[in-house]
Design brief:
This protein folds into two domains: 96 residues, no CATH class; 318 residues, Alkaline Phosphatase, subunit A (3-Layer(aba) Sandwich). Helices cover 32% and strands 12% of the residues.
């Protein structure tokens, strides 16, 4: 077996690279990482949506009065557009990730709660995100196991464009669809490539995986402990590719469904209109049961610029009295308006049993930062009936360092996913389930 073959194996349609293995002197790149028919008698499926805004909020004016808990709280002025949904939302205070210490990586660990320094000798480590735990259960019967939406300006908090909020079981980032056009075609446009050609592409990809796995297994016995661990991660990445290919084959001959209200290809949208369209696409995807798990890392710079701002989102987040605060408040109110519209559409969209999509959704809106670089009291607004939460309340946790992962564990269990633990969770938030 030549070194070039051991480094990477390539077909006309794909390439799979071996990881860097010092004990072998290899320097390859990391490894890339009756259907469609709804039974009208089955109960409506659970759906999870995670909406990350990044860059915090106008913290001193976004949260309700800490002394007014329960159902009698008042929505802050910035959240007034949500008034008509007040009985169906809950705002939670005093949640945080104990390991978050980097104010510039707020989106990176929001759905994982991981300790980036957990592995000695490494300056970055992440774990599976809550959406992907849910997707392993809720995504079995849908065309897309999960849908990751993001924005072209995702790099504005330190990462490249296309990076979503989702992380796989190996703690590796999952790419996202970064424009409404890309999301529209991925979820609703049928591939015009002839079926036989698509089948051949899948077979070619499988041949590559078979070959590279054979090579990798043959060299496994020559590796030290460190490299064996790296190779195990590599095998996990390959297994994920195998699962994806198997699922693509399963749906190969099934046309993508179109929602009852016709959709046309979105134009080149930015900011507010970009977010509004992404919300519409999520609603449409739920209507045809294309997926049941969604994450959306929303635009930051493009969002505030569509509202007339000339500064960056990072500059805005370091607000003081004056223009920065004004921009921050406009951004918060615009998000509240868009979120209210999203809820309107979910409530109007009916399931076969007469209930609404909203009744079976669990929606989280928030971020890992409160403001500037402050990582305590993560802005957290939840809605929908999917996890069995009792809404219409303002909850303030007694412990100001209650793990945000307690919410993620509560969301999973409330959605019927038997997760024993998640991240640094100490348990579920009992108050969410109590009337």
């Amino acid at each position: 077996m030549t070194n070039s073959r051991r480094t990477f194996l390539r077909s006309a349609t794909s390439a799979v690279a071996l990881p860097f293995l010092p004990s072998l002197g290899l320097t390859a790149a990391a490894a890339p990482v009756a259907r469609g028919v709804v039974n009208p008698l089955a109960p409506p499926p659970k759906r999870l949506v995670f909406l990350g805004i990044g860059f915090g909020v106008t913290a001193d004016r976004w949260y309700p009065d800490v002394d007014r808990e329960g159902a009698k709280y008042k929505l802050p002025k910035l959240l007034k557009p949500l008034t008509r949904h007040k009985d169906d939302i809950t705002i939670i205070q005093n949640l945080m990730h104990q390991y978050s210490a980097d104010g510039h990586a707020g989106s990176t660990f929001w759905l994982t709660g991981a300790n980036r320094y957990a592995v000695p000798g490494q300056n970055f480590h992440n774990t599976i995100s809550v959406d992907q735990v849910a997707a392993e259960v809720l995504g079995n019967d849908t065309r897309f196991t999960s849908v990751q939406l993001t924005a072209k300006d995702a790099k504005s908090d330190g990462h490249g464009p296309g990076l979503s909020l989702a992380w796989n079981r190996s703690g590796k980032p999952i790419a996202g669809l970064d424009t409404p056009v890309a999301a529209f075609h991925r979820m609703f446009s049928n591939d015009t490539t002839p079926l036989k050609q698509r089948q051949k592409i899948l077979n070619d990809q499988r041949s590559v995986l078979d070959a590279v796995l054979s090579d990798a297994k043959a060299i496994n016995r020559k590796l030290d402990k460190s490299d064996s661990e790296k190779l195990d991660e590599y095998f996990q990445s390959v297994r994920e590719i195998e699962i994806r290919l198997a699922k693509e084959e399963k749906w190969l001959a099934v046309d993508k469904k179109k929602p009852s209200k016709p959709l046309s290809e979105p134009g080149d949208l930015e900011g507010v209109e970009e977010i509004r369209m992404m919300y519409d696409l999520m609603v449409a995807a739920m209507q045809v049961d294309a997926s049941r798990v969604f994450t959306y890392r929303m635009p930051a710079n493009r969002m505030i610029q569509s509202l007339g701002a000339t500064m960056s989102a990072h500059t805005m987040s370091h607000f003081s009295e004056g223009e920065r605060r004004t921009v921050s408040q406009k951004r918060d109110t615009a998000h509240a308006k868009l979120l209210a519209e999203f809820f309107d559409k979910l409530k109007k969209s009916k399931e076969p049993d007469g209930s609404s999509l909203f009744d079976h959704c669990s929606i989280t809106f928030g971020t890992n930062l409160s403001s500037v670089h402050t990582l305590k009291n993560c802005p957290t607004l939840i809605a929908g009936g999917g996890s069995g939460f009792k809404h219409g309340r303002h909850l303030v946790m007694d412990n100001p360092k209650t793990p945000l992962c307690n919410l993620w564990l509560s969301t999973l269990r409330g959605s019927g996913i038997a997760a024993e633990s998640f991240g640094d969770a100490t348990g579920v938030i009992d108050e969410l389930f109590e009337a």
